[in-house]
């Protein structure tokens, strides 16, 4: 069981905390369960939940105690990955297992409930993005966590990708001087995929009530996190939402953002309309500076397969020397998920604040909500303009 | 099997800049070519009580990809049928294990499209079925057919794209996907086409897909097998490599195509001849190589690379 200090989190757990508070070592030395490592469960073993599960299974100092999923095939997949106990209900899992932490990889409409159940059990949580379906729901979730004294980490992985980290390093080194303009684009084909159609697409991603929004919540929220990581506080100036199909949720979003501290104007575009053929991933980040451009493409292996082969050879060498492999080494975008979870687990083990916490997740939600509001205002404004009668003009 | 020529009509794409999302604009451009290609078929439909229009709406892929029939083509066909017949008209598809037809139709815009017509949307998966037997090469092929299709004249509107196995999706396979038949995959399209005897097949070649989409801006109409033969040629396939089509067409010669404003040779040159993307998230060879690497190096296999295991 956990023995977290009840005052681990500040009053509302959503404003940025002063660094001094979080840099203090917290008195949590005895908070781990009696197991040899961090005892962890994975709630939801769909696609991304499976990545988290495999990451955790391969992580030294972490013991995957159990997994939960309502879908029998997903439970079988978890068992095949090495999990000895699986549940069809995450509530039962949390009541039954002795845990230190849980990964919440459920659809967004279950995040708040899962965190509440975890809070009742005193279990720290690593929540898949978006943290919640709204800032209002996030506030309730974080208040519950604060009252229970559990830590909340959020899986904003883009900043863990080597190409994005490379951009930040180059920017922080001042390699292109002042950056008046930046752009970020993230596209994929979730949930409908590309032909040939094989699997039943889940309904929740296209249902704003279940997901909180459309592609802006699915992908844009990652972009907001990266932009804030790069440029500091952000202000959303304008936004437009698009639908390529007759879906309730948008599958395209374009947002105009300003970063006052760095004087940077940014365009953000995200969409779930573009077919994706892995290993190609359509993430573009460009910083246009005074002396040149920083692009994430310059921080990727020139050839995915060559980079993967290098990583694979490195891991094979590690095997021979008895060292741990870089998990998901050849696939940088999945290795980013591993690294994000590993950082969370390290923070929990050491009694520190998760490196990307609930406040970070809540701020990304607030930016997305502001973009929705501005897009709605623009829509109302356009509709009003359409309703205006054209005045008759006499020659 | 009809020996009548396939009719072709170009859709004016000169003013287009890429895909036009406005379905009204697309339907306006399609009005004349639909009238041209449907011409003679309307005579056979004049006395029909019920007409069922069957598009390729197997999954909500975007119509600009060419992987499904453009709802604007279906809307234009329905508009023409409503103008020239008194029949009760439906647009039909079927739910399957992947996705409900209602959801596919809604995403593709059929629900809002049909609000402007008297035509209705029908999910054939909910329909009662009639057991039929069709003889192919003197062997009886039993099949179960939705009553709606049995009791109406059928207008099938396929897209111009390949199937996962290689041959064209075509009119016959679009119909074959709506019947239950335990025979070999090459037999069901033949049996379905013979039992349903569609009044006309309208090939939506406004956007063709052959590994990449291309704006082909053309409609074809004729018998199901003749239209499929044209589609096979346009996608660079041979009739001999398509068991279903060869069964129906046998030793029939080339299909005649009438359409003064359509340059078939140029069209054939423009349309790529590739297939659908690979079924796995990643290329199968990459998935297999990754699994070998992971086993040796002690790394985890991403779920996308598990190869359907």
TrEMBL record, chain B:
<protein>
    <recommendedName>
        <fullName>DUF362 domain-containing protein</fullName>
    </recommendedName>
</protein>
<dbReference type="Pfam" id="PF04015">
    <property type="entry name" value="DUF362"/>
</dbReference>
<dbReference type="InterPro" id="IPR007160">
    <property type="entry name" value="DUF362"/>
</dbReference>
<feature type="domain" description="DUF362">
    <location>
        <begin position="53"/>
        <end position="231"/>
    </location>
</feature>
